[in-house]
């Protein structure tokens, strides 16, 4: 009796691309079966941030990936790759589109994360951002080296799976991607489930310099938003903030000393500190050029501010992904480091203060 298919390691090479089994012809004598129409778009399920992983065997764990959340709609008439905000980015992920086309003729919606891997095979948000051209004039570029790690299946061959518990959706995903024969070096891969006690797992993941872990409750349906059915535990905190200004630099007149950051409190923006580290060569100059086109035209800054006066204020348009260690008692980021720019179409969640 053959062994059941299991998730394979993240970077293991295998052989041939996957194709669905040929469909059998419908028996004319069989009554017409009812099918669920494929949704035009599904608001994604999101992971709730936790300081420590919950206990219990009802959780499935996998790596937290550092990329862009995508929903891949596969239909006979074509492929659509939608961002978290519902924007069609099919043209920006040509390799993922081609790999998704090979999964047909089944109709399905795959939920996953697009990443670009570094030389050590680890997801690198900065590399993905560079591929997409999000930090310069090449905005709209194609990320031809991006890989989609699929971690959920929302719809399959006429059946809306959102009401089905996660453990069954996961089995269907593994079967659909045909893990035993899937091309693990291709552009659509199965996200690996990690079989270990989550606190030990988290310690190991953090030691490797990775983002963290995501847990999914095996008995829950697919529910949009942050319901607690999915949780994430990070090694280092990383969130998205508006850039609302920059501090001039005497050392680099064409760049800046630091970026002034803001988060939401209810509907208002509040200052959460500044970031002056993490910029790769030339990045500060490129960002400065972008910011100078967004200069704030009013006398008052775009938010309450009690710091230094030598700040050039800008329209809160650009969103930066920032790593940080903790929050100070006065609500500022401690040890922040710049990771890259987010695109508005990615519907990046600008951080909201409770």
From TrEMBL:
Alphabetical list of CDD domains matching this protein: Adenylation_DNA_ligase_LigD_LigC, OBF_DNA_ligase_LigD
NCBIfam families linked: NHEJ_ligase_lig
Family according to the record: Belongs to the ATP-dependent DNA ligase family.
Catalysed conversion reaction: ATP + (deoxyribonucleotide)n-3'-hydroxyl + 5'-phospho-(deoxyribonucleotide)m = (deoxyribonucleotide)n+m + AMP + diphosphate
Domain (ATP-dependent DNA ligase family profile): residue spans on this chain: 139-282
Gene symbol of the encoding locus: ligD
Record keywords: Ligase
Protein name (record): DNA ligase (ATP)
Species of provenance: Rhizobium aouanii
Top-level division of the source organism's lineage: Bacteria
Enzyme class: ligase
EC number(s) recorded for this UniProt protein: 6.5.1.1
């Amino acid at each position: 009796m053959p062994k059941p298919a299991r998730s394979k390691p993240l970077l293991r090479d295998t052989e041939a691309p996957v194709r669905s089994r040929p469909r059998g012809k419908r028996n004319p004598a069989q009554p017409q079966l009812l099918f669920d129409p494929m949704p035009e778009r599904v608001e994604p399920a999101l992971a709730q941030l936790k300081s420590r992983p919950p206990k219990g065997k009802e959780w499935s764990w996998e790596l937290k990936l550092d990329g862009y959340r995508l929903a891949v709609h596969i239909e006979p008439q074509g492929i659509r790759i939608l961002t978290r905000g519902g924007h069609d980015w099919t043209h920006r992920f040509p390799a993922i589109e081609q790999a998704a086309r090979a999964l047909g003729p089944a109709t399905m919606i795959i939920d996953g994360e697009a990443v670009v891997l570094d030389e050590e095979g680890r997801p690198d948000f900065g590399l993905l951002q560079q591929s997409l051209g999000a930090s310069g004039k090449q905005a709209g570029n194609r990320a031809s080296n991006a890989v989609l790690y699929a971690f959920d299946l929302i719809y399959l061959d006429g059946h809306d799976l959102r009401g089905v518990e996660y453990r069954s959706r996961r089995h269907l995903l593994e079967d659909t991607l045909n893990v035993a024969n899937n091309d693990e070096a291709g552009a659509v891969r199965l996200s690996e489930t990690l079989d270990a006690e989550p606190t030990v797992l988290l310690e190991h993941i953090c030691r490797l310099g990775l983002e963290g872990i995501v847990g999914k409750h095996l008995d829950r349906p697919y529910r949009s938003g942050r319901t607690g059915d999915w949780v994430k535990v990070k090694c280092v905190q990383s969130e998205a903030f508006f850039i609302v200004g920059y501090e001039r630099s005497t050392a680099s007149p064409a760049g800046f000393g630091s970026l002034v950051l803001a988060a939401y409190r209810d509907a208002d923006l509040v200052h959460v500190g500044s970031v002056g580290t993490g910029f790769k060569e030339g990045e500060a100059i490129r960002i400065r050029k972008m910011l100078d086109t967004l200069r704030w035209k009013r006398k008052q800054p775009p938010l309450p501010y009690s710091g230094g006066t030598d700040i050039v204020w800008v329209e809160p348009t650009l969103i930066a992904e920032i790593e940080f260690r903790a929050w100070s008692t006065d609500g500022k980021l401690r040890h922040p480091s710049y990771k890259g720019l987010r695109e508005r179409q990615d519907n990046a969640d600008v951080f909201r203060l409770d």
